Model the fold of this input.
Amino acid sequence: MEFKTVIDFAIELDNQDPIKHYKTQFHFPQHQGKDAIYFCGNSLGLQPKNTEDAFITELRTWKELAVGGYFNGKNPWLYYQDYTKKTLAAIVGAKEDEVTVMNALTVNLHLLMLSFYKPTKKRFKIMMEAGAFPSDQYAVETLVKHFGFDPNEAIIEISPKQGEKILHTNDILAAIDSAGDTLAMVMFGGINYYTGQFFKIETITQKAHEMGAIAAFDLAHVVGNIPLQLHDWKVDFAVWCSYKYLNAGPGAVGGVFVHQTHANNIDTPRLAGWWGNDEKERFKMEKGFIAKANASGWNISTAQVFNTVALKASLEIFEQVGIEALRIKSIQLTAYLSFLLSQLSNISFEIITPENPEERGAQLSLYFHENGKAIHHKLIENGIVVDYREPGVIRVAPAPLYCSYLDVFRFYEVLKNNF
Done:
């Protein structure tokens, strides 16, 4: 498609958008009495309008049934984590018995790494991208320390080439080859939070397995953003949050994928709790943990009902629209954004996110050579919500569920007319 730099073109694209009506199903922060333009779903998604009623339903059940809500009411709480499985499985390309929800992202990362990181004197190294989100860095650092290793020796960080901002897949694969049989685990973010680069998960997984290593991913910036095929790609495990593109609210329950190969094996090591025990044995209250033969075998505590309500509500929207339709719109939205940005000559910046749409999601990261923070403030003053990361990067994420082409054009107009 040949894009144009006129407002009528943006309006025409919105009129042709088959999923445009989903924008009306979300609450927006207000700016001068109007909906703000919200490009920050990569940090916290907007609240779906069906969320309030979803909470009221469970509050009413608690009010009227108390403990009886575990077995009765509209959504018996005993099985609450299971209500998310069908749609999550479709979003991440998994079988239903390979996914579950529990805890929060980094808690789940710790738990899964403890299950799958089995270091030996020779095979003990973990590979990750340099500049991964700090929680991932801290989790890996403390994991290897827990097993008595020096992080400087046990952690391999892959950095971009001198003068570049993104990683080349061939360099990642070469590094895995070089580590050889010293490598115990590859643990990458599916999308780098800073650059917005989407890594080739299938290719990295295959190479890790060739070296005898576990392939693991933090998919915080991927799930609900880009369609995945985790089962077919044979990823060993993955974790994610649900408060970004899944719109489940601040601190919402985290998600877990464990490949069927491991999930169906009740002898796969794990830290156990009552909720992961075989349900046929759970209420016998006896010693001896017997894991569920699925990803829910990693559940530890009672289902976090009120931490899962908003996710359940949001997933109803995802089930209606479908992740593939979201991806089609997302690719065009970011392409349109990239085109408009390329027309600007009044400010000095570069897009550090890969140009290839197959290597990015809904986020474009703009590196401003000067005045980045001031530009960020000006955008906020004009009712455009984006976030700023040092040094000089503004992350712009037009989530396709609730962002429009006109939103993208307005963003371009502010940059064009105010600097």
Summary: The chain has two domains: 7-42+322-417, 55-319. The chain has a mean pLDDT of 97. The longest strand covers residues 183-189.
